[in-house]
Design brief:
InterPro entries: Bact_solute-bd_prot1 (IPR050490), SBP (IPR006059). Helices cover about 45% and strands about 15% of the residues. It is of the alpha/beta class.
């Protein structure tokens, strides 16, 4: 979820390696007329168990289709490389779990099925999926995948630390200046307590948290000309907020990918606030943290967050297998199946219809903060679905790190970011 993958490493060679790919050697139709399709889901732990249980149910209830969920030997983090190699070899799956940020590059392959006309099928009308889910699978106005997962970003806070410091709990509509001041008041060096944290590995986990701040200030990731960034001024203001946190020594910087140390500090009771998604709630609950959830702070007073949807991408292995793959994925993202997967994986409903299901409403009632994450989908935005995004993200990630460690001012950091990002945007695609 929300990870960048390795788009930048493989994008340059993707067109060359897949342009001559042939379809699979057989159409997957057995002597009994049943079509077999291959699913590379990339899930681990409880999510793997949940997906494979859904596959067994589909196979039981759809006797004309058999889904092989062997997985291709790749986890989601490595799926882009695995699928790219498979396309080059001409032996690729029918369905793969592709990170949303990787879709623009993988969709350059002619083997990726265009699903634009398919969105009218299924029990859930396309417009009932959250806007973020729809936008994340749309490349150049064509639907190139179906949504697999959706989430949002909010602030989870430790109520015990707030009480000990005599600081009021944050409320919806608070400002970034109030966030900085709150983090400063909650920082207690004598007891190793930080007001907040920020991932500092320079990866997508570092970068995507800044986009809502930039959007809130009126910036865009790509400018109107399509050849330069649209956040030169807004990026400086957003990075100044990080500089303020660093100046006051109230931000814990996690230099390891994934932010796991930051989360361990939070569940260990030494981090007062952390911006995260619903997937972390099970760990926080297991750690018995007395927590609350509040929307992200704002500069403008308008509610805004970010979502990082991932996708089920379908590949063309002939008409029979393509039809079967569409039927399987369409079934998998329908409300009943969607909610069951959400309850296991700690993700959010893909559609408003799913969010109204009794099972989801019961989960919202018994899980503190889940309603905040769900409501945030009304105002969630997504990163642009363009091939150059990985390079833009990497450039901003380095800018963020330089501000967090104090080696550059926000203005210097954004100038360096713009130099690299603008060059990426000018590369013909």
């Amino acid at each position: 979820m929300l990870r960048l993958g390795a788009s930048a490493a493989v994008a340059a060679g993707l067109t060359a390696t897949v342009s001559g790919c042939s379809a699979a050697m057989d159409d997957g139709v057995g002597p009994d007329g049943r079509v077999t399709i291959e699913l590379w889901h990339g899930q681990v732990d409880s999510s793997k168990v949940a997906v494979e249980a859904m596959v067994r149910e589909f196979n039981r209830t759809h006797p004309k289709i058999r889904v092989d969920a062997g997985g291709g030997g790749a986890v989601a983090d490595d799926m882009l490389q695995k699928v790219t190699a498979a396309l080059a070899a001409g032996a690729y799956p029918d369905v793969a779990y592709i990170y949303g940020s990787d879709l623009p590059n993988i969709a350059r392959s002619p083997q990726v099925v265009d699903l634009t006309s398919w969105t009218g099928h299924g029990a859930t009308p396309w417009q009932q999926y959250w806007p973020a889910a729809r936008e994340a699978v749309t490349v150049n106005k064509h639907v190139r995948a179906l949504p697999a997962l959706i989430d949002s970003l909010a602030v989870v806070y430790n109520k015990k630390l707030f009480r000990q410091a005599g600081v009021p709990y944050p409320k919806a509509g608070w400002t970034w200046d109030e966030f900085v001041e709150t983090a400063r008041r909650l920082t207690d060096p004598g007891h190793g307590v930080f007001g907040t944290g920020w991932p500092g590995a320079g990866d997508e986990d570092t970068t995507w948290r800044l986009w809502p701040m930039i959007w809130d200030l009126g910036g865009e990731i790509v400018g109107p000309d399509g050849r330069s960034i649209g956040f030169a001024d807004q990026g400086v203001r957003a990075l100044q907020t990080l500089a303020d946190l660093t100046r006051d020594h109230c931000v814990y910087i996690d230099s390891k990918p994934g932010g796991e140390l930051m989360y361990q500090v939070f569940t260990g009771g030494r981090l007062a606030m952390v911006a995260t998604g619903p997937w972390k709630l099970p760990d926080i609950i297991d750690a018995k943290v007395d927590y609350g959830v509040v929307p992200l702070p704002t500069y403008s007073g308008r509610p805004l967050t970010i979502s990082g949807p991932d996708t089920w991408t379908i590949f063309d292995n002939g008409p029979a297998r393509s039809r079967a793959a569409k039927e399987f994925v369409s079934w998998l993202i329908q409300p009943d199946q969607d909610v069951r997967l959400d309850l296991t994986a700690g993700t959010l409903p893909l559609s408003r219809i799913s969010a109204a299901r009794p099972a989801w409403l019961r989960e919202v009632e018994r899980t503190t903060g889940l309603e905040v994450f769900t409501k945030a989908l009304d105002t969630a935005r997504v990163r642009p679905v363009i091939p150059a995004y990985p390079q833009i993200s990497q450039a901003l990630g380095q800018a963020i790190i330089s501000v967090l460690i104090g080696s550059r001012t926000p203005a210097q950091a954004i100038r360096a970011c713009a130099s690299t990002a603008n060059a990426a945007l000018r590369i013909p695609r």
